[in-house]
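Researcher: I'm comparing several assemblies side by side, and this is the next one on my list. It has 659 residues spread over two chains. Same procedure as the others: predict the full complex and return the structure.
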Amino acid sequence: MMSDEEYFSDGSDGTFQDDSMRFDDVEEEDQYLEDTRFDKPVKKAYEVDFKVHSDQQIRSGQQAQFEEISNILGLDIGQAALLLRHFKWQKEKLIEQYMDNPDSINKAVGIRPEAHEDTKITKVKDFVCDICCDDGDSMETFALPCGHRYCVECYRHYLTQKIKEEGESARIQCMGDKCTMAFDASDVQAVVDDDTFTRYKTLLDRTYVDDRESLRWCPAPNCIYAIECGVRQKQLNQVVPTVLCDCGYQFCFGCGLADHLPCPCSLVKKWLKKCEDDSETANWISAHTKECPICVSTIEKNGGCNHMTCRKCRHEFCWVCMGPWSEHGTSWYNCNRFEEKSGIDARDTQAKSRASLERYLHYYNRYANHEQSAKLDKELYTKTEKKMTQLQSTSGMSWIEVQYLDNASKVLQQCRQTLKWTYAFAFYLEKNNLTHIFEDNQKDLEMAVEQLSELFEKPVDQLANLKVEMMDKTAYVSSRRIMLLEDTAKGLAEDRWKFNVELV
Amino acid sequence: MSFAVRRLQKELSKIHKDGLPQGISLVKADDFDEWLLDIRVFGENPLYKGQRFRLKFKFGNNYPIEPPEVTFTTGLERQIPMHPHIYSNGIICLDLLSPSQGWSPVQNVESVCVSIQSMLASNRKNERPEGNDEFVARNTKSPKHINFVYDDPTV
């Protein structure tokens, strides 16, 4: 069996150094953010500091902390690990409380530092396992320091069930009745097979990242990286912490969704919910129904003539001009009274009741349009690659020289993503002077994007001559995006935007 | 032979050899999937005086790593006992029977019966759990997987 120290040291290179350690304390976080703002003047207002960790680094990061606690409190690595996990990695709190009252903490966590080695696997004379009721002197038995000794086979069965079926890792306890003694990694390793132990370590890494507010797994499929970022949940109304994983996926650290700059997480959540609930229904209502001019019940005309009688208030009106049916006189079933005053009034009421619906659809349609374009991104990208190859053969340009197309395609994709979320942002924005600036920025970006998009679609034989124009346009589009994001990010940080909903 | 069957065989032969505590009797143990036991409560508790109750144990392949599913059933002269932690459909809310909370593989059929017996013996309330009617009408889950909140250590 390996010693406690060995199973963790898997050749990793001990990162998580000083600057990542600074995230640990809530009190330090403000200072941290300001520091970096002054240290790096090139950082844009909408950018946040973050760091990408591989699974190796995640593991060695934990190991470094175990060793630190182990040294400070004079415990072995496995016990230090259990303590840290119990305290959700808040080292200061752990040390302070442990110094005050080690006994009660040992009990709560399920460790017994004074009993070191008499645990583990041994054979006991005249042993009967209370769980499988088997006996025999050759039977291997196991116990944690609490002394609840059962056969290894039962423990293996138990641990495998906990790890593989229940997904437990950090809080596996002794099998004894009401016993809270905890399994540390070396105990688990002593009992289970390699496959289960690998699974156990993976689960531990997962709980480590999940337990720490400053870490989040990259949500891209099959990605093994975790991102470290100092932005806290409670800051999410002031920043939109967008991070870029080493796998190339750009996402929001706050909520884990794909990049949604400039829209804060809470608005994104509201917007997605609303779209899920409303958009299809709202579209249909808009296309197929009108409201009763008196009681504003929504009515679908599913056949028959234009003489409508509201089911609810019994008001009779004309479907075409919306005026009262009584004014139609003898010209029934042939509405030619569109200019009549009462009809105009009725249509006014109708228009007002439709305004909020139309407003939503205005933003939704533009949002959906950019989303649709974003879905074509992949296609666009393969097309670009093809164009780049074609261009090389027709114009004699080198691979390096045609990179501007690739660059343009990437900028285009990114800007569509941003534009999409500006519409969700705008939907919740209350109208005032500041919104004009925002809308101007949005308009400029959108126009520039469409122009670049148009250039991009040009046939290959023209593309070579458009190189300079395209590079200029790409740079311009990029700068418009930065401008818009800078403005919105500063506005959020300064609490300048007024929204028509509560940010929760 | 599965883990559960081996263990249940041993439990069964122990019961046949040593018997069960007073008030607990084995009714049916023909296989290793489901056993029936009767329990009686002694003493002066008027709620259960002179009555017998029938417990049904259902064992999975992972018994005793996982707890058995234990419920009261009705039958000839057998009712579901009145208790603030026993629903009228026989489901028992007891932390001992929850895989994630009170269960330990050290427990066995006998010890579960003894716990339930004492749970009845100490009860003075002639009532069903709160929300009994709704629970009984709607519940489709196996009792093992219901997330009870074990908030009342007194009864």
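Model: For your comparison table: Helices of chain B lie at 3-18, 109-121, 132-138.
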